[in-house]
């Protein structure tokens, strides 16, 4: 069982673990997902990905170096990370149950997931108490480089990559110039080059790089096409939709057999039947409004 209600709401609905777990349900894997935590000053507060980003350091990490204004990552990164943690935890609990016959209690807090996600790279200068001379944070490397007609991302890390940067762009040898000076000269040169030319020059010298691809152009990006990473599926309500193929790829995986998320109440009758309710009993619950069903479209 998985629920993501606030603790007080779960208790009121009697779907909290104390209400659900009984001696007869020792195989139950119970998963609760909360926002800030079950105790403490913020326990029970309403929460979304946006506010957890602010509290966990995500927004501070996105602070613009020039304006000093923090910012949010513009998608539900913590929601998604929490989902991955839940799936991995449930898989581990099911393996334990298969071996022991005993279920598990899993408690996941979005704030704690966010903090775990921040370590180690985002908190490299806020981890070891003994560090007196912090290095430039890794966050400083996450910036784009303007070109004459767009932007690219490039990362120069190893000695061979630094040595190749200037020849790739037709600049004078590095000499005694520091890495920041070399990168500044490279950025000035790249600002004069079309994106395609810049990518070709850097790639020819094995320097990791990529152009910024617009959202409406992702489906035509050659590598994404080669990976067959995006597919068009038929949705029973929305019609044709484009979706990424689930990862990882495994032999025998039936991609075409994937089903969309069920409509509200789509499987109510089936679940009642599996739970032992007769057709008449299920119909009575549906007619009384206790259980909702959705009609096929």
From TrEMBL:
A Pfam family hit: CoA_transf_3
GO MF, one example: catalytic activity
Protein name: Unannotated protein
UniProt lineage: unclassified sequences, metagenomes, ecological metagenomes
């Amino acid at each position: 069982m998985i629920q993501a209600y606030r603790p007080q709401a779960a208790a009121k609905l009697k779907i909290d673990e104390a209400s659900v777990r009984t001696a007869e349900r020792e195989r139950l894997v119970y998963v609760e997902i909360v926002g800030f935590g079950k105790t403490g000053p913020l326990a029970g507060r309403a929460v979304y990905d946006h506010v957890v980003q602010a509290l966990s350091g995500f927004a501070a990490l996105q602070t613009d170096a020039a304006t000093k204004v923090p910012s949010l990552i513009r998608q539900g990164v913590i929601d998604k990370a929490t989902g991955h943690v839940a799936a991995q935890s449930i898989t581990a609990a099911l393996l334990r149950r298969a071996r022991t016959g005993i279920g598990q209690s899993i408690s996941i807090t979005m704030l704690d997931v966010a903090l775990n996600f921040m370590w180690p790279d985002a908190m490299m200068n806020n981890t070891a108490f003994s560090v007196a001379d912090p290095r430039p944070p890794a966050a400083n490397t996450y910036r784009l480089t303007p070109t004459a007609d767009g932007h690219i991302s490039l990362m120069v890390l190893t000695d061979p990559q630094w040595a190749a940067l200037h020849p790739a762009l037709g600049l004078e040898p590095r000499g005694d110039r520091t890495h920041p000076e070399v990168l500044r000269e490279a950025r000035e040169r790249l600002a004069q080059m079309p994106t395609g030319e810049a990518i070709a020059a850097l790639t020819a010298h094995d320097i990791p790089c990529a152009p910024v691809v617009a959202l409406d152009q992702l489906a035509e990006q050659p590598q994404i096409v080669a990976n067959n990473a995006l597919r068009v599926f038929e949705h029973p309500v929305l019609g044709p939709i484009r979706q990424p193929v689930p990862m990882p790829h495994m032999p025998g995986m039936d991609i075409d057999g994937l089903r969309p998320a069920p409509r509200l109440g789509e499987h109510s009758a089936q679940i009642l039947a599996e739970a032992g309710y007769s057709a008449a009993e299920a119909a009575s619950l549906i007619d009384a409004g206790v259980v909702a069903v959705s009609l096929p479209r």
